[in-house]
Amino acid sequence: MKKLLILAAALAFATTATAQSLAKESGADEVIRYWDNSTAPHSSCDTVPEKISESKGKYKVSHTSETVFYIFKPEKATGHSLVIFPGGGYKTVNLNFGWAKWLADQGITTMVVKYRLPNGHAEVPLEDAAAAIEYMRDNAARLGIDPTKVGVSGSSAGGHLAAWSSVVLKGKQKPNFAVLHYPVISGYIWTGKPQWSTFEELLGKWRTPAQIDEHSVDLLVDGDTPPTLILHCDDDPLAPTINSMLYYKALKHHGIKASMHIFPSGGHSWKDYKKEWTEATKEWVLSF
Fold first, then answer.
1. Separation between Cα atoms, residue 75 and residue 98, nearest integer Å
2. CA distances (Å), 233 to each of 93, 156, 264, in order?
3. pTM summary value
């Protein structure tokens, strides 16, 4: 028993040390550990220790139980800010701080959110998204941002979280605009395992049609949904472009300002057309 306790303590220290090194290696100007499963309103009930793996400056985090905000401040702020929710199929949070640094170089204050994964508790990532947006507004003066120019962005499952935040959050938690990169949108698309497995991670294996309706964000768009830019690659094998088309159609049905760019190649990332999609994102954000 004593050996087991020593091992558990060593594992806990290793996890903490890894999280600390990630905070340093991110290059963020501020790292805010906001809450965890024991202090947040809801818990994901995941008791497995957090695991972080690194490859070429990118970090894949699984079993997240602590919400962390990585904030990047520009030298010459425009007043615009963007809260970024990384992808990972709601199974991991895939952190890439290079994109946030580039946005900061353009004058955009950027927050990358390491959100808690749902583990079948769908309210958990949305709770973290709401907290991140509210934090930006509550600290607008200190961060040098305009509280009426706070946007959200996300890729893949992070795109789902950004769109979900756009359609259901209210008041100071609602973003002013959104940027979606190859988002997962609908639980009714069954092309490719990653598409439906994202909803399985979010809602559980035995999700009901009512639950799918409540989390397919194209069905939740209304007149209060913020303006949205959607970027996707036509040959995406994981999140088919029908996701973006459904969301764009819903936005236009409700008279929401929207723009959609579907590039001919690039897969489930931006292997091609990097200049085009980065400039499109920059121009969209700075237009508000």
1. 16
2. 21, 12, 6
3. 0.92
